[in-house]
Design a protein that fits this description.
Elements: H1 13-24, H2 29-36, H3 40-46, H4 48-70, H5 75-89, H6 105-118, H7 138-143
Helix pairs in contact: 1-4, 2-3, 4-5
Length: 144
Amino acid sequence: MTSRGRPSFQPTDKDRRVVEMMAGWAIPEERIAKVLSIDPKTLRKHFVEELEVGHAKLEAQLAQNLLRIAQGHDRQSLIATIFALKSRFGWVEQPPPAREQPLGKKEAMLDAAQRAVSGTSRFAPPRPPPNYRGGGTPDEEMTS
């Protein structure tokens, strides 16, 4: 009895090197599969290890390059350092504290009026001296 359909894919050592190399260059799996003339599912089935190793090598090269740049003393180094700290160590930027909005004209006038009434404004009426008893006319106070 003969089997029907297409024969199953058998990867070669050359195919494995090509997949690892292309994965290491960040080429999408669909394009790697096209180069090998296979379906992307077949690629993932037969080349799991090569895809992982290629991606890991790329990540290592990028990290090495980022750290090399971050060790400099210019603006590009600062940006690379900030990126590395955010992506690898979870750093986040805190938003600046909310600024108090300035009062509008009406609110400022009402506030000034409240301060004048309470006596905390420079325009408030003068306070009497501390020993002043108040209450009557000056003539009544003299006779008592």
